[in-house]
Amino acid sequence: MPLTIACSEYDTTRALFDRTDVEVTTAATLPEIFERVISGHEFDVAELGLTFYLRSLEAGLPYVALPIFPNRVFRHSCVFVNTRSGITGPADLVDRTIGEFGTYGQDSGVWAKGILMDEYGFEPSRNRWVIGGLEHPSPPFGFVPHPHPDDVSLAPADRALSDLLATGEIDALFSANVPQCVLDGAPDVARLFPDHEPLERDYHRRTGIFPIMHAVVIRRELVAHADEVYRMFSSAAASAADRYRRDRRLYQVPTMVPWMNALVERTEAQFGTDWWPYGISANRVVLETYLRYHHEQGLSPRRYSVGEVFAMIDT
């Protein structure tokens, strides 16, 4: 039987959907895939958020993570504030009510909190946290545990977090997705770091970290196929990168984005030719940092090592 794979359709994975030797599927939202993996064990191979994987390890999740990272995002940009709250910088995130989608410690939130703690002295416990749906009222995710430190105050949100931010009923929001109130141009909502790209580029130059959100997991009884799956995903990502390199000759005209060619050139100048690496060695610092953040924020019972969490594939 061909392997069944579930993942989002990114640049890095699009070529997988054209293969005939595997069955690749996706879903309307990533939490749907995560729930089907964790609750139903539906797929042989799947994309899974790092925090969802780590929270499920102690419960005996029958999957092991591979060092394949289809989703990476810099996260200075994921903190939104209501400007009427008086928040003008990280130092103002004290005694505030802050929203987070689905769970305390989404992967985006783990990174954002960790970076703010390391770089600006942010203390999550000095704020109140409300957890719920981003655009629609919904309870916290029911398919994963919700650990958190005893000194962190949590409550469920009674309305959509985007609405609460727009009205000022919460002061800030940590969100992997841009909330609808921002897309609609809400006058009182802005990013904590409005000009975030220079900060994120400087952060990468200083630390070498390009934050990882999701990995790929494989059923433990199929781990003999891990190398095959690694090569499959690596080939898909390489084909996307090659397309950007080829399109430099055409100034990236296949895209609709002005100055895309300049962005690709700046990215390659800063990151090198492989700006989206898989494997352990190229990502060890990133992974160790995430595992430290996850433990420091009270989401892991102990600080896991990279070797405990990932199959040690490398090339």
Order of helices and strands: EEHEHEEEHEEHEHEHEHHHH
Biggest sheet: strand arrangement: 8-7-6-9-5-10
Distance between the termini: 27 Å
What is the percentage of strand-forming residues? Answer: 15-25%
Unreliable residue runs:
none
Work out the radius of gyration: 20 Å
Write down the overall mean pLDDT. Answer: 96
- Shape annotation: globular
Describe the structure in your own words.
This protein has about 325 residues and is of the alpha/beta class. Helices cover about 35% and strands about 15% of the residues. The chain contains ten helices and eleven strands. The strands form two sheets. It has a six-stranded mixed sheet with strand order 8-7-6-9-5-10. A five-stranded mixed sheet has the order 2-1-3-11-4, sandwiched between helices. Strand 6, helix 3 and strand 7 form a beta-alpha-beta unit. Helix 3 crosses helix 9. The longest helix has 22 residues.
Name the features:
six-stranded mixed sheet, alpha/beta, single chain, 315 residues
Summarize, please.
The chain has 315 residues and is α/β, with parallel strands linked by helices. 33% of the residues lie in helices and 17% in strands. The model has no long low-confidence stretch (mean pLDDT 96).
